[in-house]
Amino acid sequence: MALCAQLLFFLYLLQFQHLARADSCSGCFTQSSAAYYPNSDTQGTESGACEYGTFGATLNGGDVSAASNLYKNGVGCGACYQVRCTNAKYCSDNGVTIVITDLGSSGDTDFILSQHAFARMGQTADAGASLLSLGHVGVEYRRVSCSYSNKNITFKIDQSSNFPFYFAFQIWYQQGSKDIIAVQLCNADNLTCKLMERSHGAVWAAVPPSGPLSVRMLLSGGDDGDETWVLPPNNIPQNWTAGATYDSGIQV
Ligand SMILES: *[C@@H]1O[C@H](CO)[C@@H](O)[C@H](O)[C@H]1NC(C)=O
Ligand SMILES: *[C@@H]1O[C@H](CO)[C@@H](O)[C@H](O)[C@H]1NC(C)=O
Ligand SMILES: *[C@@H]1O[C@H](CO)[C@@H](O)[C@H](O)[C@H]1NC(C)=O
């Protein structure tokens, strides 16, 4: 009897694993729809909720997007998605790869693309113009790796920072297909660390320790489910200033 119960439990586990796998099918496309920013600015926006500022307007050649559910309270900032529209008359097979820089929805859309990105889903420039005149199209999307050639992850010290009392930065050039789910700030000399808070969007903040600073980032699990800490080789110098950028010295 006990054996039988064990066997049933085992079968149940197997089935559960199977379902879990189908749910997180990493290469699969999800059906949705997309609109585009109504402003005249064809590229990204400087005022996106991720708080990338002017960097957010030109990031990825202006192929950026606002997300609704995928924004995930800011965890989704910096994530890359392949988005392709589904109208065979106009749409290319590859669509466009965009970076999330903002929060927003329009009806049931998952994405509000920059006009630049929206038009790039077309097979040709003319097809892109036709898509723009439709305004709202069916799409399918999947998470893909972000890659920026010759760019390390970079810490842009937020203008809200106030040396030495309040320390906040945005994370630029996030790479790969995992989310940054926690950040630790350490005194680089004695490795006393504290967790930073995601203040909003891609901005992390803390009351900093004195001395040079070492930042550690926790990446979400991939298909294997293991979360991993990334330890950049470069420290942020003791005399950091608001507005400055510091190279982490690492790509992921
Ligand atoms: C680590 O260094 C900082 C700055 O020098 C100091 O304030 C702090 O007390 C040190 N912590 C420990 C545990 O030694
Ligand atoms: C910070 O200190 C370094 C040397 O430790 C110096 O080269 C650099 O100019 C300083 N930067 C600022 C902004 O004061
Ligand atoms: C990235 O960091 C490595 C060292 O970790 C450095 O050699 C390289 O020059 C950096 N790349 C850029 C574009 O700054």
From TrEMBL:
Residues 47-151 form the Expansin-like EG45 domain. Its main location: secreted. InterPro entries: Expan_Lol_pI (IPR007118), Expansin/allergen_DPBB_dom (IPR007112), Expansin_CBD (IPR007117), Expansin_CBD_sf (IPR036749), RlpA-like_DPBB (IPR009009), RlpA-like_sf (IPR036908). It comes from the Eukaryota. Keywords: Secreted, Signal. Belongs to the expansin family. This is Expansin-like B1 isoform X1. It comes from Canna indica (Indian-shot). The lineage of its organism: Eukaryota, Viridiplantae, Streptophyta, Embryophyta, Tracheophyta.
